[in-house]
């Protein structure tokens, strides 16, 4: 199977996902390793390349609803889906390793193809590949149906990260027992929110995994650890580095949009200028679309296309006119094409939209705001407004400090340099979420690997089939592979010393 980045982008419509909820103050950008688009009725989700099922086996595990209580309700179960690729595995007799990919806020269907770092390297490790779906996503839904699972806070309340990583532990125990592989070392891998889960799993379940690769995991974007404007500051820097004139045009466009919108029939003029799918009711509909587009293009600024460069190329070229709004529209067309309407389309509410909305309204409270020194209009994060909107949606309030209470985050080097081990935190510094990532080594075994030109989770995507990946990306992946092989080698040495015998 080819894992060419360009093909991946084509099968995902050359678009990028940033899920925002329906209210303006509840808008934490979606975390996802694989870029997709929150589909609208005008842009339904289609995939030109389906996941190859030749080597993928689908299984279901009877999972507990609640791992942390002993009430009768806690003992209810649901079917949790996981996938296994046996093709490369050296087998239980040789204690060959297991790579476990932690599914995050989406169905697991396309992970074997999209997260091709695993299949690219499994043969050299003789590794078994396991992909585990996150509860409440895909087919791993409690209470019999998504409607029941999302019915109210009482049913959706079992939907959190602690339950998720406990699920993963249970599935891995089951897999190792079923395959008679008690001595096969496990390395957990995840990207973005899944990368958070991988790092937290290693800390909470060190007996279950010998190491974790956490790609683009902004575990420090909680409380006041990371400046709230970090995300959009990086977005702005990306555009400024791509083109100063592009940056300035975007910076000036917001006031121009407001100026036109304030005129008689101004919203109608904007609707025509931007070829909107429906007439604009307010200028913020257009501004939020553009803000999302710029930010997601920066987050997923993958080679060889480099969407930020594509947008800025369109803006600077100005094919539709020399005025500011014509240039901005040219940037939209450069990225999205000129075939259909683009802005203000009616949306299909996906399971990820619903799930991520709940997760950010409960525990994944990432306080992202826009400061005064960016190419966007200032929009500081207001927890009060955020909490009020969440309370209206679910009847419960967010817990903004729970993540750092349960997993840590403050003074991370002081706390983890003795306590933690065998975690790789990888980041691309062009990724806006890298502003909340671990960018410096915490110890000799909790290490940070970053690339100046890297974007969101690029390292765990598949290698370019034509061997044309940038040298820095190849080097980044090679560092990760070398460290992971070191973990496994040391594990075998330790196992031999403990048991006195091991078949390799």
Automatic annotation (TrEMBL):
Keywords associated with the record: Glycoprotein, Hydrolase, Protease, Signal
Pfam families: Peptidase_S28
InterPro entries: AB_hydrolase_fold, Peptidase_S28, Ser_carbopepase_S28_SKS
Single GO molecular function: serine-type exopeptidase activity
Record bears the keyword Signal: yes
Superkingdom of the source species: Eukaryota
Signal sequence annotation: 1-25
Gene3D superfamilies to which the protein is assigned, alphabetical: alpha/beta hydrolase, Serine carboxypeptidase S28, SKS domain
Example of a GO biological process term: proteolysis
Family note: Belongs to the peptidase S28 family.
The protein's name: Lysosomal Pro-X carboxypeptidase
